[in-house]
Amino acid sequence: MTTDPREAARAAEAREALDRVKRDNESFLGSSMARAADHFSGKDAPQDDAAELWGRRVGRALSLLGVVVLAWWLGHQMKVW
Q1: DSSP character for 47?
Q2: Cα(36)–Cα(18) distance, integer angstroms
Q3: Three-state SS string across 15-26, please?
Q4: Distance, CA of 68 to CA of 78 (rounded, Å)
Q5: What angle do CA 9, 10, 16 make, to 5 degrees?
Q6: How far is CA 39 from each of CA 31, 56, 79, rounded to the nearest angstrom?
Q7: pLDDT the model gives residue 21
Q8: DSSP H helical segments within the chain, as ranges?
Q9: Which of 73, 45, 74, 66 is nearest to 57 (CA)?
Q10: What is the DSSP secondary structure assignment for residue 80, as one 8-state letter?
């Protein structure tokens, strides 16, 4: 192996480029769905507090239901369906 600093810099740049390609190659929908699943399951709540965990889950489910109902109502008012 050579100890040329230019070769080491090129190797580091190549590794960074491969990491960027790997990161950019991930499916947008797949990563979004994974984040949404983590959000609605309450992964950010303290795991030792069951009331906090279930409160977040119920609240987020009700907010999703509210968005769906409001979207339906808006479509109905605009006579889209």
Answers
A1: T
A2: 27
A3: HHHHHHHHHHHC
A4: 15
A5: 90
A6: 12, 9, 33
A7: 79
A8: 5-25, 28-41, 50-77
A9: 45
A10: -
